[in-house]
Amino acid sequence: MANVSGIADVARLAGVSKSTASRALSGAGYVSAPTRDRVTAAATTLGYVPSTNAQSLSTGRTQSVGVVMPFVNRWFFAEVLEGIQHGLLAHGLDLLLYDAKPRTETRRRIFEDFLARKRFDGLIAVGVDPQEDELESMLSLGKPVVSVIGDETRTSVVSLDESHTAQRATEHLIALGHRRVAFLGAGADTTRPRVETARVAGYQQAMRDGGLGDQITHVPSALTMPAGYAAAVDLLSDSRARPTGIVAVCDEVAIGAIIAARRLGIQVPAALSVVGIDDHEHAEMFALTTLRQNPREQGETAVELLVRQIADPEAPPRAVRLNPRLVVRNSTGPVFPAASAAVVDGGIAPAE
């Protein structure tokens, strides 16, 4: 439906010039707060909606942001995308989504063709951990780029302190008396290689710090429940070398490990403690102890960084690291739980 009123009507009602009304509604140029409020109120009263095309002509901006991610149907990426959408809507910006699945022709076309059309004012790259030529492709567009997981020197980035996160997860099991602690996942999937490498390093550091360097065990796995299940079956089938604790690269792998333990008749946490990273939507269902991150918050933070960078293209890149919180549930307990109790959310409960 076409606008019933035009910018001239809004300016007249607000008692300002057309150019002032246009600046107030587009955000291009300075307008005092009281004047902006008056113009906004007039636009609301008249039901005036600014034309995106007109704004683009007057500001040189598309009022759109491109979002590139390797998957849209996995929990982490879907949550980040929801946060990005919420943040963009709050700023009146449109979203152009590019689903760049790894090692596909579609991905190649996105980087070589679609992004080159520059139908956006900036880019948010989510977990793509692009190869050097892909990063060059994005930066060569001359548009601001913000990463959710990615290069911390050439783009602004939002991420967890991945190494510290895995270190805390490992220290939780060590504090419960576990000595045979294995790391499950990473090394078999290129979905988030920076994340995987950093989390493995954090686990290894915690083991060395705990005097357990000779117990370090890393079992590769893709970042899915089925892959975690398959890797855990192999790891847990050998009763002589079986660990008493598992740190999983993510909650999906951790849940796969819990299912594998149940099918092998290994009680969790009586005989095996499992800790994950993420606080996936299914973590509570499996009583999974985990390091909670907030992907939606990461998406919203990325939008704020990008909006600032669009307003000031010369601003240097910024890195925002978000710290996770340990959420203790029933998947972890003392290495000899029969002697005391089982760890639960919020404290200690008697063992059953």
Task: Summarize the structure in words.
With 352 residues, the chain is of the alpha/beta class. It has three domains: 7-59, 434 Repressor (Amino-terminal Domain) (Orthogonal Bundle), CATH 1.10.260; 64-160 and 296-323, 3-Layer(aba) Sandwich (Rossmann fold), CATH 3.40.50; 162-293 and 326-350, Rossmann fold. Helix content is 41%, strand content 19%. The chain contains twelve helices and 14 strands. α1 (7-14) packs across α3 and α8 packs parallel to α9. It is elongated, with a radius of gyration of 25 Å. The protein starts with 6 loop residues before the first helix and ends with a strand. Mean pLDDT is 85; it is low at 337-352.
Q: What is the CATH third-level topology name of the largest domain?
A: Rossmann fold
Largest sheet: 6 strands, parallel
Query: Overall 3D geometry?
Result: elongated
- Number of H- or I-type helical stretches: 12
> What is the CATH first-level class name of the largest domain?
Alpha Beta
The CATH architecture category of the largest domain equals 3-Layer(aba) Sandwich
Question: How many domains, as an integer?
Answer: 3
Helix content: 40-55%
Structural class: alpha/beta
